[in-house]
Amino acid sequence: MHAILLLIRDAHSQVSVESNQSRALVSLRDMILKGEFAPGERLAEIALAERLGVSRTPVRLALATLEREGLVEQWASGGYVMRRFTPQEIHDAIDVRGHLEGMAARLLAERGMSPQVREELEACVSEGERIFAHPTLDLDDYAAYTEMNNRFHEAIARGCGNGALARAIEINNRLPFAPASAMLPMQSSHEDGHRWMLFAHLQHCFLLEAVKSGQGARAQAIAQEHVQVAKLNLEYALQRPEDAATLMPALRLVATAPTPSSKPGKTG
């Protein structure tokens, strides 16, 4: 009986350690993507552990995971610091998402959708139609579009039937500004934002049509082209850092030097 109790205690202890590690990882990743750390800022284990209410071990393991994800880097004298991203790195991550989601859309078209995924995608398109029926959009409309946009992209990844591809999309989305809705806050801040968002919604409509028709190549091409709106928003934000700082605090992690592909003043 004593041995059984020891096994139960050890099992509970292991679950507690894993739970604390997961909580520390999720919390730190969220803090990074909210711009709570400046580029080059040292991420001290003791201070972070106190802030998160855990021991140093979960924080140390979480920081090691974040380094593998490319969000932090090791400091020369030990420990970790917040890294700085170049605009080109963000562009590249958005491009990678386009290629991965393009592959997912092609698989979905060629293999066919489950009734659940079909219903989810159709509901997202219907929600977009409802939003754009308004002559002007308010903050509630932008929030509703962001939620719908996340559901649409998640359904494509989840429904494609390729677990490895879905995980690759999830990993890429951990990088700053790579996820589908990461750049949407900028669209509420300028005149072209409504036009860009409507264009993105129409692409959702065309993508769903291609998937329903089994047009794999067309679905893939639309999904890859779809990320161009996110890249336009990134360029707009980098050209107006003062405006972007309030809407997207994590922009402080991105160097302001223009990317090779950037074209100042480009709006569509």
Gist?
The chain is mainly alpha-helical and 268 residues long. The protein has twelve helices and two strands, in the order H-H-H-E-E-H-H-H-H-H-H-H-H-H.
Keywords:
Arc Repressor Mutant, subunit A; two-stranded antiparallel sheet; 268 residues; 12 helices; 2% strand; Four Helix Bundle (Hemerythrin (Met), subunit A); 2 domains; mainly alpha; disordered C terminus; globular; 68% helix
Characterization of the model:
This protein has twelve helices and two strands, in the order αααββααααααααα. It has 268 residues and is mainly α. It has two domains: 81 residues, Winged helix-like DNA-binding domain superfamily/Winged helix DNA-binding domain (Arc Repressor Mutant, subunit A, Orthogonal Bundle), CATH 1.10.10.10; 167 residues, Four Helix Bundle (Hemerythrin (Met), subunit A) (Up-down Bundle), CATH 1.20.120. A two-stranded antiparallel ribbon has the order 1-2. Strand 1 and strand 2 form a beta hairpin.
Largest sheet: 2 strands, antiparallel
| Global shape | globular
Helical content stands at 55-70%
Order of helices and strands: HHHEEHHHHHHHHH
Tell me how many strands there are: 2
* Fraction of residues in β-strands: under 5%
Provide the CATH architecture of the largest domain: Up-down Bundle
Terminal CA distance reads 71 Å
Please tell me how large the radius of gyration is. 21 Å
Query: What is the CATH third-level topology name of the largest domain?
Result: Four Helix Bundle (Hemerythrin (Met), subunit A)
Uncertain stretches of 5 or more adjacent residues: 5-15, 257-268
